[in-house]
Specification:
By secondary structure, the protein is of the alpha/beta class. The protein has helices at 2-6, 49-59, 81-91, 103-112, 125-134, 138-145, and strands at 20-23, 31-32, 43-47, 64-68, 97-101, 120-122.
């Protein structure tokens, strides 16, 4: 399914990481990968420095950003750099509206101390995306129309 989506003409809007920070387990120190290749026996735990730069360069001209999900295992300081860097970039966008959605994203923004610089912060990540996509939610409809 992912390959099919990436083959669509609109896929040019999808920015995938170009490098990662990988380690055998979260207790190890991570090392940058050679491109996107994560070797057998390791796991990607954060985005790498080239991806941070790529995302920063792309986001600097954004007018609206919906952020749902951290870049890595940000709860571990060894793997928090990517998530915190993206949070910092979003907090510095001069003319953009930034919506941060989802419990982990909210936690990351709080950890960064930059929540007050975001347009809106909500723990409803999946629900926020569903509302944007569908225009309504079951719970809202129940309140509006008395439907269960």
């Amino acid at each position: 399914m992912a390959k099919g989506i990436l083959a669509l003409p609109t896929a040019k809007k999808i920015l995938l990481p170009v490098d990662h920070i990988a380690a055998k387990n979260p207790d190890d120190n991570g090392n940058p990968t050679d491109g996107v290749k994560i070797t057998s026996g390791t796991m990607g735990l954060d985005i790498g420095p080239e991806t941070i730069k790529k995302y920063r360069d792309t986001l600097k001209s954004a007018k609206t950003v919906l952020w749902n999900g951290p870049m890595g295992l940000f709860e571990n300081p060894k793997f928090a750099e990517g998530t915190l860097a993206i949070g910092k970039v979003l907090s510095e966008l001069p003319e953009a509206f930034t919506l941060v959605g989802g419990g982990d994203s909210v936690s990351a923004v709080k950890k960064s101390g930059l929540g007050h610089k975001m347009g809106h912060v909500s723990t409803g990540g999946g629900a926020s995306l569903e509302y944007i996509e569908e225009g309504s939610l079951v719970g809202i409809n129940a309140l509006k129309f008395g439907v269960s």
